[in-house]
Amino acid sequence: MLRAVSVAGLVAAVAVPHIRRQLGIPAVVTVASTLAAPAAIATLWPRSRRRDLALFFSQMWAFAVTHELPYDDPARLRKRLLIEYPIRADRWLGRGRLPNARLQEALHGGPAGAVLTRISAWAHWIWFVQPYLALFWILFRDRGAFPHSARQMAAVFDLGCVVYFVAPTAPPWWASENGYTEDRVQRVMVEFGERIWGPIWTRVFGTLGSNPWAAMPSLHFATALMAAILLTDTGGRLQATLGWVYAGTLGFALVYLGEHYVVDLIAGAAIVLLVRRGEPLARPLAHLVNERLQRLEAIAAGGRTA
Question: Which of 16, 171, 208, 296 could form a Cys-Cys staple with 43, CB 3.0–4.6 A?
Answer without folding.
Answer: 296
